[in-house]
Amino acid sequence: MRVKFLGSGDAFGTGGRFNTCFHIAAPSGEYLIDCGATALVAMRRFGVDPKAIRAIFISHLHGDHFGGLPFFLLDAQFVSRRTEPLVLVGPPGLDQRLRDAMEALFPGSSKIAWNFAIDSIAITPGKAHMVGAVSVTPFPAAHESGAPSYALRLSCDGKTVSYSGDTEWTDTMIDAAAGADLFIIESSSYDRKVPYHIDYMTLRTKRDLLMARRIILTHMGPEMLARAKAGEIAFETAEDGKSVEI
């Protein structure tokens, strides 16, 4: 399985990075974890074919994590000429928020007669949900987004990738990370406590609780990027275009 960071940035384009979007290429198919507002641009930049994506898994309903969906869908209809079904997976409220976003950005677009089937699945914590060949388990995240916010654990083809979403530290991160081949976790600030986000110094104290085989930090703000560049971060860090095999 290959994981490519199409977008590793925060909501504000810090460091010129794209919004959150991770591409999963597995024997069973290709998937996205989150689809931030810049996702389609990043896909073009890094050579990912939108038509190849079977499912998009959304952690929470903030624009830098789901705001690329209107552009993705309209590209699928009018540019990529998609015919294969697409599955959208996320928290309850995704359907309405997506319709609202489409109407705000492209009035009338939510009423398009799509040339491909769109299956929307609302997932809830406490159980694994099968989406084709992928088992996805959501864990509650401590992040206000007007709907439930999740960490996501995806398993397919014998590999597991987990992602914290945006969140303050919560012990559900321990469960999300346990035994994962890769755990991607946000670290927005270095030592400053930012509501609904994790700071690096907290992660350092919790490191031994995260029993994943590999951990990569993402969603980093200005100080985190500066310290990472200076070699002061004792974790592997993400960057746009980075590709890892697990």
Overview of the structural elements:
This protein has 246 residues and is α/β, with parallel strands linked by helices. The protein is built from seven helices and 14 strands. Strands 6-5-4-3-2-1-14 form a seven-stranded mixed sheet. A seven-stranded mixed sheet has the order 7-8-9-10-11-12-13.
Q: Which secondary structure elements does this structure contain, and how are they paired or packed?
A:
Layout: E1 2-7, E2 21-26, E3 29-33, H1 39-45, E4 53-57, H2 63-66, H3 69-78, E5 86-90, H4 94-105, E6 118-122, E7 129-131, E8 134-140, E9 150-156, E10 159-163, H5 172-177, E11 182-186, H6 200-206, E12 215-218, H7 222-229, E13 236-237, E14 243-245
Parallel strand pairs: 3-4, 4-5, 5-6, 10-11, 11-12, 12-13
Antiparallel strand pairs: 1-2, 1-14, 2-3, 7-8, 8-9, 9-10
List keywords for this structure.
246 residues, alpha/beta, seven-stranded mixed sheet, 14 strands, globular
In short:
It contains seven helices and 14 strands. It is an alpha/beta fold and 246 residues long. Strand 5 (86-90), helix 4 (94-105) and strand 6 (118-122) form a beta-alpha-beta unit.
- Seen as an oligomer or otherwise, the chain set is single chain
Overall average residue pLDDT: 98
Trace the largest sheet across and list its strands: 6-5-4-3-2-1-14
For this structure, what is the CATH homologous superfamily?
Ribonuclease Z/Hydroxyacylglutathione hydrolase-like
The top-level CATH class is Alpha Beta
Quote the distance from N terminus to C terminus: 6 Å
Share of helix among residues? 10-25%
Count of helix runs: 7
Going by CATH, the architecture would be 4-Layer Sandwich
- Outline the biggest β-sheet: 7 strands, mixed
Label the structural class: alpha/beta
What is the radius of gyration? 17 Å
